[in-house]
Amino acid sequence: MEMTFSRQFLDVAGILDFIVGILALILSIIVSGAGIVIINEPELAAELPSAFGSYTVLIIGIVIAAVSLFAIFSGCLERAAAKDPAKIMPAWVLSILSVVVGTGSLIYDFVKNVSITDLTSTLIGLIFSIMVLIAANNIKKQAENNPPRP
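RESULT FIELD:
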């Protein structure tokens, strides 16, 4: 079966999601390690800006780990759906969830009046999520129109 552009795009997006997820997981380990060091060394905690509590860095590391695992999982599902359109539903649902979260993040950035760099980063992520959703939706339609033969 020949791969359509949507399937090729979803395959590449899955690879990118997987790579970014692995890199973010490495970052989360580093940040969490720094958080543990800060918790165990009160002198370091005293040098941090007042916005950071002792556990803030550790919590940030845990949040980054959760997001990275989501990206790795999404990447695996996107690759599986690109190879076999019958497996599109989980990737389609996660792409909808990504668009919803990205939209919420963009609204939050507007409300908080963040820097243009943060806003641009959020917008690029949202555009990527929308492109993945469009590709997943095209594959879903193709799978519905061409059911697998027994």
